[in-house]
Amino acid sequence: MANHSNPNAARPPPMIDSPLYKREAIIVSCTFYVVIAFLAVFGNGLVVASFGRHSRLRTITNYFVVSLAAADILVGVISIPIWISMLLYSSGGDTLQQVYYVLDLFAGTCSILHLVTISLERFFAVVYPIRHRNTSANVYYVSLIFVWIIPAAACGSALKLRVENRQANMLFLFIVFFVIPLLVILFTYARIWHAASHRIQPSHDTSRTMKRDMRIAVTIALVIGFFVIAWLPFFIVQLLIVFCKRCQPGIFSTELLLFLKFMHYSNSAVNPIVYAVKIPEFRRAFKQLVSLCLYCCTNQSSRSVTADIVSGTDMRGISNSRERVLSQ
Asked: Whose C-alpha in 111, 157, 223, 225 is 20 to 30 A from the C-alpha of 266?
């Protein structure tokens, strides 16, 4: 008689049990993945909370920054835990792998489109300041909606194309969601530096505004630089695997795969650090929130200790009263 009581009988084995992967490397990598997930959720949570708590942070640029933070939180809450589960618990079969592929792709494309939109907004703020000030906020709100809709639509198309033609799918993703956005970003920042260097005898107010705009532009440039560093190796290896069959034996290894995943996941945790270092308003807001959290935790702990002391005193008082009544 067949045994139907084992729920794990049909569960695909985890990657850690595969002979292709090294257990020690997976265990060490999962430790780093957990740290990255925590930093991504905590750091980007600070960005979202600061934006909601401080009205002075609610600028047009920061609407896109906080939206990017929300996308990075999804990476820490969903993508990284699923990847760890596939490594340690079960590879999940085709369904889980497709879900993971879509979510991972969505996070990456969403991030790059946010950075492109922020770059364009900074470009208009520095190069065409009057037009930027006169543009309706609704234009930016619509752009904010599209940077979420386009990746969602692209993920659906990529999932279908991946089944039909893997090479065409990889080339499509690389060109449309990495090369073209990167060229747009490089063009906008070239114009920003050119406009800043050729600004003639600005007034005091204009100079102060220009310095603020350039500080924000430098911050976003750092964010973009870290994005390229985090994702470029992943795209290069994927292109070699898909288009160069002879390269596959020499390229594929446990350590390389785990390192590439570490690189592009770490991008979700690094942005809040850049904001804290380069933008004083965010730095002050982060300090206030962390101090408030520590105060609440300390206060709650003190209340708990006080309650225990009072409770113990009351019980001893009740016990003593009973003893006195019984002795009379």
From this structure: 157
Query: Where does the pLDDT of residue 265 fall: very low under 50, low under 70, confident under 90, or very high at 90 and above?
Result: very high
How far, in Å, CA of 225 to CA of 266, rounded?
A: 13
Q: Is 231 helix (H, G, I), strand (E, B) or coil?
A: helix
Question: Do residues 157 and 175 make contact, with C-beta atoms less than 8 angstroms apart?
Answer: no
Q: Delimit the domains of the chain by residue range.
A: 15-195+204-313
Number of Cβ atoms within 10 Å of the Cβ of 296: 10
In whole angstroms, give the CA distance from residue 27 to residue 198: 53
Dump pLDDT digits (tens) for 112-137.
899 899 889 888 888 888 888 888 88
Between CA 320 and CA 315 the distance in angstroms is 9
- Quote the tokens at residue 108: 């990456």
Amino acid occupying residue 165: N
Instruction: For domain 15-195+204-313, say whether CATH 3.40.980.10 is its number.
Output: no
